[in-house]
Amino acid sequence: MRENYVPSGIFPPASFLIALLATMVFSLILAIPYALAIWFIPIAFISILAPIAWGFLCSLIPGRTITSGHIRNPMVAGLAGFLGSLPGYYLTWCAWANLVFNMGDTVAIGSGRRAMSVAKSSISLDQLKELALVPKGLFSLIQSVNEVGLWSISRSSGNVHGLPLWGVWGVEFLMIVGVTAFLYAARAREPYSEETQRWIPCLKLGQKLAFPDDLAQLRQKLDDGDINYLLSAPVEEDIKNSNYLALSVYQDAAITEAYLDVDAFTLEKKNAHKSNNLSKKLKIRTDLARALVNRLS
């Protein structure tokens, strides 16, 4: 019967506070550059990428406190990411409102279909401080902007305003705090040994395995805890032009447990592969883990 890794849920309270404070500080550092990027680069791609990049940067830098603080509770880790992002998110609104308040003439950039308009503006530290300390004034300005809007989807359409604009801002909020919380929780889900009080190292095996004739059958066998196919399948030499299986092993010589990730990569158009997870952190015997590592690393 299959057995997968399940986090213990344990977390040191001090580590949660450290992760929370580190995220708060870092989010405040990100806030003004984020607002400036959204304002001066009015491209849809940037508007989508920027909040996602926020979450990834938080995970890469202050999110390391989840690992160093030995937080094995995904909910607590996600909460640190969520709450820690809020001060920075609030400051982005203050910076953006400051840019709206100081908005000047519009400058056309580019020509033809790729042309776009950018309004000149600047951030005043005194005004920024006043907006941050007087939330009522900030919310009043946001509501006023929402009534008329500042941008449109196309030249022939009016400005996006009202409920649709609230929806856009709501999605942005979910992307900023949601991605951060999700990535923080993912860190806490990594295999951890309660015996040695340390994270179990992950080794991505270099060599790939040949694709099975029946992928559904292999998935079922993995669900049953049977990895015999992985121990005997031939190595796939031409991974650029073929379907293949990629394995990652979590093991530590000091403990008696190991875990296995199995991903199937199917060849799509233009030599691109689509990944599909077959098994996530499947518990296996340490001797089988060593056999896979010796064979495929």
List the helices and strands and how they pair.
Elements: H1 13-40, H2 44-60, H3 64-68, H4 74-101, E1 106-109, E2 116-119, H5 125-133, H6 135-148, H7 162-188, E3 192-193, E4 198-199, E5 202-204, E6 208-210, H8 215-223, H9 228-232, E7 235-236, E8 244-250, E9 258-267, E10 273-284, H10 286-296
Antiparallel strand pairs: 1-2, 3-4, 5-8, 6-7, 6-8, 8-9, 9-10
Question: Which tags fit this structure?
Answer:
elongated, alpha+beta, two-stranded antiparallel sheet, single chain, 297 residues, 2 domains, 10 helices
Structural features, described:
This protein has helices spanning 13-40, 44-60, 64-68, 74-101, 125-133, 135-148, 162-188, 215-223, 228-232, 286-296, and strands at residues 106-109, 116-119, 192-193, 198-199, 202-204, 208-210, 235-236, 244-250, 258-267, 273-284. The protein has 297 residues and is an alpha+beta fold. It folds into 2 domains: 13-188, no CATH class; 195-296, no CATH class. Strands 5, 6, 7, 8, 9 and 10 form a 6-stranded antiparallel sheet that branches. A two-stranded antiparallel sheet has the order 1-2. A two-stranded antiparallel sheet has the order 3-4. Strand 9 (258-267) and strand 10 form a beta hairpin. The chain is elongated, with a radius of gyration of 25 Å. 27% of the residues are buried. The mean pLDDT is 88.
